[in-house]
Amino acid sequence: GIGGFGISKTEASGDVYNLKELRQFPGAYGQARYGAAAGDKGSGEMWLENPNGVTIDLRTRRQGLAVSLGADAIIIDFK
């Protein structure tokens, strides 16, 4: 990704939109994000979308020291 610095651990939960079939879920997701973390106080939000039009809205909790604003690519797969 680009647009951030620091080290942090992130936990996230959220909602999935436009998922008609489970096979649409895995794949590469583009991400826009913002957030900050200092010690055990941190939060942010991520919006992810894949080529199938599946969108994930994640609310994050972070620990560490980091500031982020930018974009990433994330791969989601089933084991």
- Per DSSP, the total helix count is 0
Mean pLDDT: 74
Strand content: over 45%
Helix and strand element order? EEEE
Rg over CA atoms, rounded to whole Å, is 13 Å
Helix/strand layout:
Layout: E1 2-17, E2 27-39, E3 41-49, E4 55-76
Antiparallel strand pairs: 1-4, 2-3, 2-4, 3-4
List keywords for this structure.
79 residues; four-stranded antiparallel β-sheet; 76% strand; mainly beta
Characterise this structure.
- With 79 residues, this protein is mainly beta.
- 0% of the residues lie in helices and 76% in strands.
- The chain contains no helices and 4 strands.
- Strands 1, 2, 3 and 4 form a 4-stranded antiparallel sheet that branches.
- β3 (41-49) and β4 (55-76) form a beta hairpin.
- The protein is elongated and about 35 Å long.
- It starts with a strand and ends with a strand.
- The model has no long low-confidence stretch (mean pLDDT 74).
